[in-house]
Amino acid sequence: NAGVTQTPKFQVLKTGQSMTLQCAQDMNHEYMSWYRQDPGMGLRLIHYSVGAGITDQGEVPNGYNVSRSTTEDFPLRLLSAAPSQTSVYFCASSELAGGYNEQFFGPGTRLTVL
Amino acid sequence: AQSVAQPEDQVNVAEGNPLTVKCTYSVSGNPYLFWYVQYPNRGLQFLLKYITGDNLVKGSYGFEAEFNKSQTSFHLKKPSALVSDSALYFCALTEERGNFNKFYFGSGTKLNVKP
After folding, report:
1. I need a labelling partner for A80 at 20 to 30 A (CA). Which of B48, B64, B82, B107 fits?
2. At B112, which helix (H) or strand (E)?
3. Which residues of B touch A36 (CB under 8 A)?
4. For chain A, what is the largest distance between any 2 Cα atoms, rounded to a whole number of angstroms?
5. What are the φ and ψ backbone dihedral angles of A77, each rounded to 5 degrees?
6. Could you tell me the mean pLDDT of each successive run of 10 residues in chain A, 114 residues long?
7. How close does chain A come to B37, measured CA to CA in Å?
8. Chain B: residue nearest A89 by CA?
């Protein structure tokens, strides 16, 4: 099992550009989520999904879109990048939805918006 | 509203000494609490969780945590620290009622274990 994979590892964008961060898991996990990690702020939930076709907003959803057409994939789209979106982005998954399950994290994508 | 606080940005301990990384929380219902560890340039790894039952929870790599409902705390502990324990530690929370698919993380505590 590869676990949770994320691409790219690094990305530099200019303000206003759009891009998609890819996330995939091969564990048949029901729950998937996206976080951003900023210094001194820990991880903040952007969006999550409890199954294919079902997504919902987290704590900081503005400026980001998600979709979940398959169990395996959960891409995060930045519609019009802003410097405030410079961060490290982590995708995570857990076997079942529900707060009692531990999450498996991908290695992260470091995004810089100029 | 749910929240997690890790009051110490950094904890320094000598190898072989006991360590404690503090976490306090705020929820309206019953909490589900987690500890994760992050090594440099890596994703987070699960250490342990409290869902219900025994207040002392044992996890990976010799770590344990004690759930204290009256003090709303979930401190991470280890009897004897190793240099390899040096990393960034995060406490995380969700709750039994409401939207239990939303997780809230603390700001993280950097643990430095000196030889």
Report:
1. B107
2. strand B109-114
3. none
4. 39
5. -110, 130
6. 93 97 96 93 93 93 96 97 97 86 94 97
7. 11
8. B43
